[in-house]
Amino acid sequence: MENIFFGAEAFPKLQEFLQNKAFSQVLVLADENTRRDCYPLVKKFLPEHQILQITSGEANKTLQTCETIWQFLTEKQFDRWSVVVNLGGGVIGDMGGFCAALYKRGITFVNVPTTLLAMVDASVGGKTGVDFSGFKNQLGIFQQPTSVFIDPVFLETLSGRQLKSGYAEMIKHWLIADAAAFETQRWNGLLAADWQELIPEAVKIKSRIVQADPLENGLRKVLNFGHTVGHAAESYFLQQPGRELLHGEAIAVGLLCESYLSEQKGLLSNSELSKIETFLASVFEKVKLTPEDIAGILPFLQQDKKNFRGTINCVLLESIGKPVYDQPVTLAEVEKSLRYYQLI
Predict the structure, then answer these.
(1) In what residue span(s) does the 3-dehydroquinate synthase C-terminal domain sit (predicted)?
(2) What is the pLDDT along the chain (344 residues), one digit of tens a residue?
(3) Through-space distance between the first and last CA atoms of the chain, rounded to whole angstroms
(4) Topology given in CATH for the domain delimited by 4-156
(5) Is 32 among the residues known to form the active site?
(6) Which one from 216, 234, 258, 263 is the annotated catalytic residue?
(7) Strand partners, 5
(8) What pTM did the predictor assign?
(9) Could you tell me whether strands 26-31 and 50-54 are parallel, antiparallel, or unpaired per DSSP bridges?
(10) Which of the following is catalytic: 44, 105, 288, 309?
(11) Distance between CA 208 and CA 255 in Å, rounded?
(12) Which of 35, 227, 258, 272 is labelled catalytic?
């Protein structure tokens, strides 16, 4: 994690990085929220720069928005020795990294994550991309940020809903890689979270897995626990005006459904499933699913990036802290898991 900087040193390290590299131009990519709430906190650490504001939200993580970014870079004559500073959450980081990776065959970009979700997950690992034709992250490329600068001060700008969304990814990390932390945190809960300690630990888990398998040919797939069902639910509700889910809210649904699938397949014990259910229920409100919703979610599973020759491949748990990847599941089994979620 030598290129990831935390806490009080993050902004000074960003300043040092931008000054020492002598970039030809600096672009700060923000949305209306991060420009208002976060940009003032980091502005004094930036050299001369330009700022481009795009509209926030997953619905705007599209090629059309990318065209706006590329058009700006082109009109302002950004060259290959320029840098993009992604100041925002997962949408900004995913899309800004994607645009930087393709512009002039690749220019430098760094991430300054402003949400808990981006700090512990989206800003680290090198996955960039956009949604396409209603499917989550359908277009993308693996491209690592040169550096990541993480300061929990931004968490003070977030709503409780946004904090919970990021916390879902932290729970996922504990479920796949740290049973002891899961046991501790299920008693501590969200309100007692020590972000200065927990964020670096979560990043360390993800970084270790990514370094072992950068292009997701094997082990890195475990980071998708909860995301097969979760991404399908997120994509479905994105098309239901007024019912959209934040990423972490959808992943919380996926974590429970995929834990249930693990138990149904004889991998996870019923007692551990109960622990997971109780922890998730203590943090997240239940997403109301009608039979029509469940039927609408299922088709999105057929575009999951882990699928192989029409088989839906899922990450399941043998026990808390011990995941297994490339586990085939059927649409009927997923439907059963969603009905289980609906009933508990």
Answers:
(1) 166-307
(2) 679 999 999 999 999 999 988 899 999 999 999 999 999 999 999 999 999 999 999 999 999 999 999 999 999 999 999 999 999 999 999 999 999 999 999 999 999 999 999 999 999 999 999 999 999 999 999 999 999 999 999 999 999 999 999 999 999 999 999 999 999 999 998 887 899 999 999 999 999 999 999 999 999 999 999 999 999 999 999 999 999 999 999 999 999 999 999 999 999 999 999 999 999 999 999 999 999 999 999 999 998 888 888 899 999 999 999 999 999 999 999 999 999 999 98
(3) 40
(4) Rossmann fold (3.40.50)
(5) no
(6) 216
(7) 149
(8) 0.94
(9) parallel
(10) 105
(11) 21
(12) 227
Chain-centre distance for alpha carbon 315: 16
173 is catalytic: no
As given in the structure block, the two tokens for residue 162 are 């946004």
Element (H, E) at 84: strand 83-88
Query: Could you tell me where the beta strands, DSSP code E, fall in 182-329?
Result: 312-319, 322-329
Q: Which of 35, 164, 221, 247 is catalytic?
A: 247
Amino acid of residue 243: R
Kindly indicate whether the domain formed by 160-343 is annotated with CATH number 1.20.1090.10.
yes
Q: Which one from 58, 169, 234, 258 is the annotated catalytic residue? A: 169
Cα Rg of the chain, angstroms = 20
Residue ranges per structural domain of the chain: 4-156, 160-343
